[in-house]
Design a protein that fits this description.
Layout: H1 2-6, H2 14-21, H3 25-37, E1 41-44, H4 51-55, E2 60-63, H5 66-73, H6 85-105, E3 111-116, E4 122-128, E5 134-139, H7 147-156, E6 163-169, E7 175-177, E8 180-184, H8 185-191
Parallel strand pairs: 5-6, 6-8
Antiparallel strand pairs: 1-2, 3-4, 4-5, 7-8
Helix pairs in contact: 2-3
């Protein structure tokens, strides 16, 4: 549980974890699957157009609750200070959980994944809508979004057909930066048809 908390929101390297705890990688993978099956967390698969190739890529893992994850890390009583790396990771975790929960609750049948390229450029969340349309989402904890926040996402826009690019943040002002539509995270959920009240 502690190792899962430490690697929360990161790509799971089953082999490295197995080496650290002196077991085999299949056992580690089974433990993560148990965490998902018991609803203690969710596995976010890597995106690939091919289902077979997608199954060969390592997923990310997110605990069902940020507080539980912080408690397992032993940092629950430490403040999560805005404009820090830890705050940004917690915000990304929170937004991904909200999207996953609404997808389940509203029975939207969306497929969620992430993408990281070989040169470590990442899309935080890819939503595959029924019918094939994609939403590419960058999540930033900033109160003011500019082109530096959307640059990597902008690079992907031409690579995906039927895709809309979004940046969800704490910035209250909606804006369009190139091909990327930027929204406060709550408005963003409405824009991708997840409907929140």
């Amino acid at each position: 549980m502690e190792i899962a908390a430490q690697t929360n929101g990161q790509i799971i390297n089953y082999t490295n974890i197995a080496r650290d705890v002196a077991t085999d990688s299949k056992t580690v993978q089974n433990y993560y699957e148990i965490l998902e099956d018991t609803l203690l967390g969710m596995l976010l698969p890597a995106f690939d157009q091919s289902i077979r190739k997608q199954q060969n890529k390592a997923p990310k893992f997110y605990f069902f609750d940020i507080g539980v994850q912080r408690a397992l890390q032993g940092i629950l009583t430490l403040p999560c200070v805005p404009k820090t790396y830890a705050y940004g990771r917690a915000f990304e975790h929170f937004v991904i959980l909200e999207i996953a929960r609404l997808n389940s609750y509203l029975e939207k049948d969306l497929k969620l994944s992430y993408l990281r390229t070989k040169d470590d450029v990442e899309i935080d969340l890819i939503i595959e809508h029924p019918g094939g349309a994609l939403s590419l989402i960058e999540i930033k904890s900033s109160n003011s979004i500019d082109d530096r926040d959307t640059r990597s996402l902008e690079r992907f826009c031409s690579d995906f057909k039927n895709a809309r690019a979004y940046c969800f943040s704490l910035d209250p002002l909606p804006k369009k930066i190139g091909e990327v539509s930027c929204f406060h995270w709550q408005q963003g959920l409405k824009e991708i048809s997840l409907g929140i009240s």
